[in-house]
Each structure stands twice: as C-alpha cells, then as structure tokens.
Description:
By secondary structure, this protein is mainly alpha-helical. Among the domains are: 121-201, no CATH class; 203-370, no CATH class. It contains 15 helices and two strands. The protein has helices at 5-20, 28-46, 52-72, 76-85, 92-115, 143-161, 167-184, 187-202, 206-215, 219-231, 238-246, 250-259, 279-308, 312-324, 339-347, and strands at residues 124-128, 131-135. The protein has a two-stranded antiparallel sheet. The longest helix is centred in the last third of the chain and has 30 residues, at 279-308. It is globular and about 60 Å long. It starts with a helix and ends in a 23-residue tail after the last helix.
Amino acid sequence: MLKTYHFYLLFIFIIAFAKGIGLSGGDIEYQIPFAIGCVFIFFKLSNDKWRTNELFFLFFIFTIIIVNYYVVRRDTLIFTFLMLIALKNVPLDKVLRTILYATIIGYTIILSGYAMGLIPDHTVEMWRIDHIITRNSLGFNHPNLLHTNLLRIYLLFVYFYHRKMGIFTLTALFGINYFIYQYSLSRGAFLAINLLLLLVFLAKFRIHKYLIVKSCACVQIMLLTFTILMATAFSHTAFFAKLDSLLTGRFTYVRLQFDETITLFGNNFADTNILFDNSYSMMLALYGIVVTIVFFYWYYKTAKVVQRYQNVTVAIIFIVVSVHMFIESYMPNAVFNITLLFIAKYLYGENSAFNNARNQKGVVKVRWIL
C-alpha cells in the first residue's frame, strides 16, 4: 500500500539522481524535477502530525534561515530545511537506500554515456605542488564530482554492508578507488575513501571500534578549531605556506574569508572571487556565527547518541564525512552531507535510526593494539 512517506522517497530519488549526474540549481533540467519533488514534499507534510512545541521550534529555525538568506542570498539552507522537516516518520534506511540507488543509477548513466561517446570528457589543467596536471571527469561536469559521487556510494555501501565486508571486498573497493583516481586526480575524495576503508577494517577489532566511536563526537570541533587557528594565529607561518601549497591554495582563500568580519548571520561574497573549499570556514564566514553554532551543537549531540548506541558504522560515516568537508564545502547540503539526516532523526527523537543491528556482529575481541 502506498504510504505518504513514499512521496518523500520519490523526492529524494529525484534530487539525489539530479545531483548525482552533476545538475545544479541553475540548470532548468534540475529546476523542473525539483519543483515536481516539492509538490510531493508538501503533500507529505500536509499529512504529518505536529506537536505545538515542534511547530514553535521549526518556526524559530525557519526564522534564522530566512534572516540568513536575506544576508547571504543563498537558498541551500532553505532546501535543506525543507528536506529535513519532511524526514519525520520516514524510515532512515529507506531514505539512505534510495539515495544509494539514485546515485548508482546516475553514476552508471554518465560513465556509460562517456564510454559510448555520447557525453564529452571535461578536462581540467591545474598546477599542483611543482607541475601541471590534467584531470579528467569521464563525463561529469568536473573531476571532483566524479570522485565525490563515488565517495557517496562507498559511504552508503558501508552503511548497509559493513559487517559483510572482508579483506577481499575492501581490496576490490580500494582498486576501484585507485582506478578512478587515475582520471579524476581528486586527492580529497581518494584519501577520504581510503580512510573509510581503513576504519572499516579497524572496526573489526573491539579496541579500535571503541576508539572510533569515541572520536566521532569531537572530530568536527577539532577541524573547526584547526581551521580558525590556521586562518588567524598561524596564517603567516611556514607551516601555513606548506599546507596551503599541498591543498592547492585552499587556506589562502580561508584567510581571505576571515579577513571579512565574522557576523551573526553571515556575509554575502557574491561580488568577490573568493572560493569556498573548506566547510568549516564557509560556515563561519558565509553563514555566520548563529548558523554555525546550531550546526555544530546538533552534530555533537547526535554524535553522542551514536556513542550511546555504540553504532560504529554511523561513527565511521560521521568521521569520514567530517574529514572530507575539511577540503570540500558541502556541510549545509543534506544530499552530500548525510550526517544531517541523522541529526534530523535525533531532533525528532527517532533514536531507532541509531540502533542498527548490522553493527552488533563481526567484531574481533583483542586485548592489544598492533
């Protein structure tokens, strides 16, 4: 029987598929399915039941988002707000599986179109450390998108099949990751996938599982603090120069972002050439102190629930996504930053989303660390 949350799943499939093939908000091919998807969202919301305190809370958050939009002129938070409020009473497993299927289908279509000569390759030449490199997208709009979508597929694959992943599976997944890297040369996603596979392997040992679960709550605060220090106290040091060179100028842009006054509700950078390739500096400089505090507080509280349930799979996802966002700027985008879906479940008190039976088996007891 068709349930109201199936309309939400259809919306999620449309958006995840569109993002998976590289469409953006400025593309008419994205705007049309997005508008259709919004109809499904509002139909679902009209059938949801809300308590008075929930409505006041949502009104308070929406007010912050509207004020932020008035200053920043970016609609990402509005889209994320819409996506997350409609997540109420929707099984998270079904949402994540829908995103996984939509991304795989989109990924396969783009690669197949490129292989058949129907979709052109978009190459990017850039200076990296001491030489010029040529990066290939294999049909995607940018080489980074080629590898970031692979990372998203891997994250969701781990969520559903973590316990079944042995050394052969991990080796095969590393091989695919290395193969794609030969074309994309996207170091961020390549290393994030390697970190993901390493943590999956380490989590098979109980002592390592404990350390992974304990560390997921503090990783974002640590990276935010490091970003702030690099942009301020250490911005004129040799270490800053070396790290900036290694990250192809990312921290130069971070420093320029912090040259602007950090305000409560953000800044409008539309008339500048400043790029955002670090989610932590982006949240403070672009979206402001209020939104940043809200995001990081909710992440921390949700990660503490992950610890309470000893859910190592979700802890791994939280860590890898948080680390990858250090060199990519998608923190407020719920399609790419899937930790926001877990945060929504925490806010609705739907803690069953964290009680994943897949994580209760496949652990090796050890009393020492190699």
